[in-house]
Amino acid sequence: MSRVPLLCIAGGGTGGHVMPALALADAARTRWPELKVSFIGAERGLEAKILPERGEQVQLLAMHGVKGAGLWQRLRVLLWELPQAVMSIRQAWQVERPDLLVGVGGYASISGVAAALLSRIPVVLYEQNAMPGLVNRTLARFSRCIMLGFEAASDKLAGRVRRVVTGNVVRESILSTRWQAHLPPRLLVLGGSQGALVLNQIVPEACQLLAREGREFVVTHVVGNDEKRLQQVREIYAEAGIRAEVLMYCDDMAAFYASGDLMLARAGAMTVCEAACVGMPTLFVPLPHAADDHQRHNAETLACIHAAVVLDQKNLDAESLAIRIDTHLFNQRKLQRMSVAACAAAPYAAQEKQLNVLAEYISGLNIKAGVST
Questions:
Q1: What is the pLDDT of residues 86-101, one digit of tens each?
Q2: In what order do the strands lie in the sheet with 282-284?
């Protein structure tokens, strides 16, 4: 009886790492139904909740991050937690050894990659952002290959590591959605799963100013997990006479994108890629404190081809934002040009490219690689 191949995906911490990891796992299972997939994550990360709820096989590590930590915690992680985690992973692999480890970033990825290198298991890294994170920048030299969500990330990696620009995998329902104009036009506001305080505060005020000028439009605003803010934002729109749907979160992102003419959003890697695939004209407000300013780098991949505009949060107020919204939301010709430019940069073939990379390293899969670089 032939052995079933095993893919192990290590990393997480935030949705920006966890959701692309799940998308990769689901795509691999679809192409190769016989493939087994396991995960390595951190007890303190988002994966500790999401993966068990999905019934995934996951090994959770008791690790802390070191970014912004004091000397004592750094020493504790490097001299105690990391070696313990690596040993724990290798012990688990004595029962079932992976054919390939994919590191997706986050501090749990370090332990998985270290264990794989010691066990002589091939390592492939996956960097979702246009500015590679510290973990992937550090580990790249030890990997067989690094898959990149954005071509711009390639020049920011040192050494001679093999780079494959795959793009980020976008859900099928979103891939089949395309931008179209509406009357009256609809403004979409998206601050991520936790919302964005600056967008929740300034966007409704900017919309009030536009309503006073007689502009007719509608709004769908995702405020994040904050019931108090939800009510406040609803009241502001209602007082201005603006027809608005205000949500804590959105279950159907394909319908969300299909309903809009212009989006205001943070610039996480997946949001940027989804906007490109849909052809959604976007005003990005990058999170200013994101690690290595990676959200700005993500947003600029679309801004440099005139598919989006990058707004600096520190200079943002209701008046200036109202002007930006006004010059875009009500100019259908401008929105159409931005939409076409966005689609031209969309990673429509990301799933196929990523799976072709994996196929090179997972034994027992009868498939021709054909990698695109």
A1: 999 999 999 999 999 9
A2: 243-247, 218-222, 186-190, 262-265, 282-284, 308-310
